[in-house]
Amino acid sequence: QVQLAESGGGLVQAGRSLRLSCAASGRTFSSYAMGWFRQAPGKEREFVAAISNSGGIPTYSDSAQGRFTIFRDNARNTMYLQMNDLKSEDTAIYFCAAALSYRGLANGRGDYWGQGTQVTVSS
User: Fold this and answer.
1) Angle at 112 (CA atoms; ends 118, 76), nearest 5 degrees
2) What CA–CA distance (Å, rounded) separates 112 from 92?
3) How far is CA 34 from CA 43, 58, 79, 85, 122, in A?
């Protein structure tokens, strides 16, 4: 029911910042918890961050904690991932996801997924 589209990826030098956006369609955006996942070449998709439908205290992976910030603007049906101090190991395709179950999101149980946006960090 929710269509998601990521944007904002690109090529950036280590230590720089990027902000990813996830635009959602429909009128039910505020009903969903939202999250970001990433998949690097040769690796499984991994959890990055999640935020509740109301925008409460978010959850971060260890690698994202302290560098990344997830936030959402329900009025604009958009969720964001602010990535600071990017490192080479952050290189991956980043996916946004929506889920009715916030608890399951960190385990990869998204109900809807975007197609991803490529983030490449050069050393």
Assistant:
1) 75
2) 19
3) 22, 10, 7, 23, 28
Strands 117-122 and 10-13: parallel
Digits of tens for pLDDT over the chain (123 positions)?
789 999 999 999 999 999 999 999 977 888 999 999 999 999 999 999 999 988 888 999 999 999 999 999 999 999 999 999 999 999 999 999 999 999 889 888 999 999 999 999 999
DSSP 7-20: E--EEEETT--EEE
Retrieve residue 32's tokens: 């969903």
- Residue 57, classified by CB atoms within 10 Å of its CB into exposed (0-12), middle (13-18) or buried (19+), is exposed
Q: Give every CB contact of residue 25 below 8 A, 6+ residues apart in sequence.
A: 2, 3, 4, 77
* Per-residue exposure over 13-37, b if at least 16 CB sit within 10 Å of its own CB, e if not: eeeeebebbbbbeeeebeebbbbbb
